[in-house]
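As described in the Methods, two query proteins were run sequentially through the folding procedure within a single session, without resetting any intermediate state between them. The first query and its resulting structure tokens are shown here.
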Amino acid sequence: MAEYQMQELTLPNEEDKKILYPRMKLWGQVDLDYLASHINYASTFTPGDIVGVTKALTQAIAHEMAEGHSVKIDGLGVFSPSLGLRDGFERESAEPGGQKRNVMSICIRNINFRADKEFIQETGRYCRLDRSKWKFRRSSQRYPAEQRLKLAQNYLEQHPLMKVSDYCELTGLLRDAAARELKRWAEDPETGIDYTGRGSHKVYIKRIIQQKMP
């Protein structure tokens, strides 16, 4: 049986307005080997067959997306590629004569997945929920957003880089909220905050202001 808890959420751009929404408690993660063993009990396929077909399907989906296609798997959902800039490249400017980006600076950054309604309904049919006695931790609200930004800016004046964990310690935000907010700061050139690296190696740095030639 799965468990849920009502979690408090502050609405975007409305610091004082909060709502409650249900969130499932995830107790762990299963991998392909586990699923293959599970499927094996109810079919004639061996775990090796299942793993092999899944990996072949993954490669086929990747190839089609690399060719510019989205991929629909009936009963599962739609996969589509998402582009971004390679590390170390600044965004293209919309201003006349501004910086332009070419193919060497653009890469696949993520894969988007939109689940089929059938897949969602199938999950719902299996799901039995109970309210959890376990409480979600909440991010601290001791600083408003403007003050958290100032804390980040001051930190980068004194340190060459800032990790998400550093921002958590500075502001009291939990990791997910801190990562989302840092991403928002880095997307706004006016904050003076930029980033380098990707994934678990992503860190935040002071934005370098490029001087225009007279």
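Immediately afterward, the second query was submitted; its sequence and tokens are:
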Amino acid sequence: MSSGSSRTTRPPLTLLLLVLTAVTGLIEAVSLLALGPVFTAMQSGNVLFLAFGVAHAGPVPSLAPAVSLSAFALGVVCGARLEAFVEGRGRRWFVTGLSAEAVLILTAAAAGWGVAPRFGAPGARQLLVSAALSLAMGIRNVTSLRVNLAGVPTTLVTRSLTSFLGGSVIGQDRAFGYGTAAWVRRAWSVGAMFAGGLAGALLVRTGWSVGWLLLPAAVLVLAVALAYLTQPLMHPGGESSG
């Protein structure tokens, strides 16, 4: 692939991944504020919640984190097998992964239809919704790791924030892109996560049912999948071919 082709396809991909990052923020807001406390994409939090629950320290129940973590692991395995299978047949694994994610988010919305947002020990339907979302986010993590666009992992912004600050005028570390435009993408990634989380929190405050809260996320993921249909086939690592 020529460098010229890379320059023409990279900006749209960056924008699409930023949208997915905002979707993660929205979903985590719903998970934590309406279903939890439980994470569906950022599994580091669930590992800690589970550890606290096992130690019987604090008010965090361990069942929801355990369900989410298990569903996430299953999503990763299924996502890896699915996307490798699709790629091996010359198909659009990026679109396939996002389509599977959107279907699972819609499934979560259906399971949460009529369920009022609630913070505290989850019931059976809350657990079912969080499990479906964790499956979706497991697939998403496979998708974003396959894309491997530096600074936009779509599900976690800790490293993006570190790279942004380290490569800024304040940090001045060239290992993090100081003196280049790369660090700007990391700032957008952090901003997208914040915007998604803010939007999700505001939606939760409306009192809508969990099903309605998740519909915007499913629509956005489907929109990203449809938008990428106009792009060349992508190889793992973010490279595209005609």
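The first strand starts at residue 233 and ends at 234. We note this only descriptively and draw no conclusion about the first query from it.
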